[in-house]
Amino acid sequence: MTRRAARLQSTAFPDWWRQIESVALVGTARRPVPEPPVIGSVAAGFGADLRSEEALLTAAAIGSAALRAGRRPERVAAAPPAPPDGRPAAGRLATQLLELVITQPPAGAQQRNGLIQHWLRAADAAGRRLPHALLPTILDLATTVRELRVLAAEVLDARGQWLAAQRPDWSWVPDALAGAQARSAASGLTEAEWALLPSPARLPALARLRADDPAAGRALIESTWPTDSVRDRTAHLESLRIGLGPADEPLLEAALDDRAGAVRDAAAAVLDALPESARARRMAERLRPLLHVSGARRRTLEVTLPDEPDPSGVRDGLRKPPPRRSARGWWLERIVAGAPLGTWEAATGWDPATTVSRLSDEDVLSGIRQAARLRKDPVWAAALLARSWDPTLVAALPADEREGAVLDRFAADPKAAAASLLASVPAPWSAHFSLAVLARLAAGKAPALTVTQAVPHLVDGLHPDALPALEAWLARVRQDSSLATHLRNVLQFHSVKRSISEAFR
Length: 505
Hints:
The protein is mostly helical. The chain has 4 domains: 3-69, no CATH class; 102-184, no CATH class; 276-391, no CATH class; 398-503. 61% of the residues lie in helices and 2% in strands. The protein is built from 27 helices and 4 strands. The chain has helices at 3-26, 52-69, 92-103, 112-125, 135-144, 149-154, 157-164, 173-184, 191-196, 199-212, 214-224, 230-239, 249-255, 261-271, 278-287, 311-315, 327-338, 342-348, 352-357, 362-375, 378-387, 399-412, 418-423, 431-443, 447-461, 467-476, 481-503; strands at residues 38-39, 42-43, 291-294, 300-303. Strands 1-2 form a two-stranded antiparallel ribbon. A two-stranded antiparallel sheet has the order 3-4. A hairpin with a 2-residue loop joins strand 1 (38-39) and strand 2 (42-43).
């Protein structure tokens, strides 16, 4: 083909394609379909037997193919070679166990992530990394399951981080890695390093630091407070619950005047857990006039509703109630939740058990439950649990009483939801509690349904010493396929978990 012919062809195709677009717009009834030009060395044609509509569709197919074929390929610079890893890979047995968990979860798909988390923690503790063949799989899983991200980032090593940089959907890795590194080095984190951390990486570091040195954690929060976003300020205030003490009050008190409502609400909620704060004293002053003990033997307690709050009350959190809540009832609940629990004894002369037994207002009881739960007051928690069961109060009991309280509840109410009861006891459980739970579940009228609901708690909390009892129960109920399946899943979960731990020793 001559150069002149090539130039003619280069202008013919765009003109023809614009004509095809015009025909498609106005219709073949109003404008004929032009014959295609020579494309490369090919002279395309429609044929005389095609109707105009068919000719238009054929022209569209020819033109779109020509446009794709004529597009120059993008030039992409080759990525630099991956650097060498610093850690040895996980061993053959550990790798096989991870592959098993990913492809054929031994305790069902719902428990897969728990086993992967255990594998990642064990690998990091042993100083091992993910095998290269499983890097894409784990990166994909952690992309959809956020709980895996920091754990996965810790064992990617150099080549895993290099691989993550090659795909946009794995862009979470640098932030997760920064969070893992900041958490491990939290005690030495400077204000300058804190300021450079991305928001997701700050919270794990702050949690670790608040657990070890609350004052240092608070100082980091204050160092960037004026420039932090509303979301960050709110999250940082929530983190003050770890190691919360009187020294945190000035920051929380100042946050009550923050320009953002979410920050003000977070500050008020955290201050509910400080019964000796200035805000608690202000709430006590609002509560005392509402309490009236009457009757010849002073055994009747009346709690009146508060009036609309003044600006000081609004500042302390007595704001607009949630939907479908009485405004005055909501304010009463917030006042009770914020006031020291000792206010009740001072006003009535009664102990917590007597006070709770003589109250009937649900807004008041809700406020007392919140105060007891947040302040982990064991006396008030026990009094409230004696009146009505509330699993959120179990954590306020002394550690050695929590399991006993749940077992007593099992005995008092065999129909109580086992999953809710078990969720109130932090894992791992003691051997005694684990054996007692299995006995209670086996004695129930519908063990298959109960165990189905309790599986997540059984896999997290069950003590290894209780596994022989679980095996014996499974041997007795093999004819109940549903129950047997769930019991077998729990057994397999603990078996694989133990094997993972042993593979990294």
